[in-house]
Automatic annotation (TrEMBL):
InterPro entries with a match to the protein in the record: GfcB, YmcC_sf
Species this chain originates from: Vibrio alfacsensis
The keyword Signal is annotated on this UniProt entry: yes
Name the UniProt record assigns to this protein: YjbF family lipoprotein
Signal sequence interval, chain numbering: 1-22
Domain of life: Bacteria
UniProt keywords, alphabetically: Lipoprotein, Signal
Gene3D superfamilies in UniProt: YmcC-like (2.40.360.10)
C-alpha cells in the first residue's frame, strides 16, 4: 500500500460514496464521524491520551492496516445478527469507512482502499473452546469473488498483556489458521482474549495475499 503525505494521512480509509442507512442511523453515523474527525485533529500517527479517549462518548479502538499509520475508530453501531445470534460491532473512521466485527472476527469491510471483505459467513465458536475447528465462507468485493470455503483451525498460543492508554489487560492468545482449499492457500490470524472472553486485540488477514489488519480495543463495547 502507498504511503501518504502527513496532511492527507486520513485517506488511509477512503470516504464512502454511498451509505445505505435509515434516517436515524444516518444521523448517528454523521455524529460519530464528526466525533472521530475532531479526535483526529493534530494527529498524524494517532496516539491519544487516556483523557482524550475517555472524552469520546463511544467505544473506540486503534486500527492499523499493513504498514500504514495507526488511526482512531469508534463504534457507530452494535447490531444483532439474526443468523448467528451474535452482536456485530461496526467501527468507523473519520472518513466513514467501516470495519465490522463479530466475536472479534472481521466479517466485513467497507471503504478500504484495497481488497474489501464483502462477508465472512459461518458460526464462529466462542474462545472458551481453545483448540477447535470450524468452517467459514468468504466473499471478496474485488472482482466479485464469492463463496470461497475456508477451514479454520484454532490453537491456543499462551498469555500476553495488552497495554493501552486505559488499561494493562492479561490475555490469552489464539492463532487461527484459515485454509482456503480452492485456492490452496492459508493465512494465520491472531486474537488476544481477556478473562471475560472478549477479543481486545487482533491481527487478521481478510484473505490470501492481503495486508493484515490490526485492531486494538481502547474502550470496549458494553450493552449497558
Amino acid at each position: 500500500m502507498n504511503h501518504f503525505l502527513p496532511r492527507s494521512w486520513m485517506r488511509l480509509l477512503v470516504a464512502l460514496p454511498v451509505l445505505s442507512l435509515a434516517v436515524g442511523c444516518t444521523q448517528k453515523f454523521n455524529d460519530v464521524s464528526a466525533t472521530v474527525q475532531e479526535a483526529y485533529n493534530n494527529y498524524v500517527d494517532v496516539e491519544l491520551t487516556a483523557e482524550e479517549i475517555d472524552a469520546v462518548p463511544y467505544a473506540s479502538a486503534y486500527l492499523k492496516i499493513g504498514n500504514q499509520k495507526q488511526v482512531f475508530v469508534v463504534l457507530a453501531f452494535a447490531e444483532h445478527n439474526p443468523i448467528t445470534g451474535n452482536t456485530q460491532l461496526k467501527w468507523v473512521s473519520a472518513d466513514k469507512a467501516m470495519v465490522v466485527t463479530e466475536n472479534g472476527h472481521i466479517v466485513k469491510t467497507i471503504g478500504l482502499q484495497h481488497n474489501n471483505l464483502a462477508g465472512a459467513h459461518g458460526d464462529v465458536p466462542s474462545f472458551a473452546l481453545e483448540n477447535t475447528e470450524y468452517s467459514l465462507s468468504y466473499d471478496w468485493a474485488k472482482q466479485y469473488r464469492y463463496g470461497f470455503p475456508a477451514h479454520v483451525k484454532r490453537v491456543y498460543q499462551g498469555k500476553e498483556s495488552v497495554i493501552t492508554p486505559l488499561s494493562n489487560s492479561p490475555a490469552d492468545i489464539y492463532r487461527e489458521t484459515v485454509h482456503f482449499s480452492t485456492l490452496s492457500q492459508s493465512v494465520d490470524n491472531f486474537y488476544w482474549v481477556d478473562a471475560n472472553g472478549k477479543v481486545i486485540k487482533t491481527v487478521q488477514y481478510l484473505g490470501p495475499n492481503m495486508v493484515p489488519i490490526e485492531l486494538t480495543i481502547l474502550k470496549g463495547y458494553s450493552k449497558s
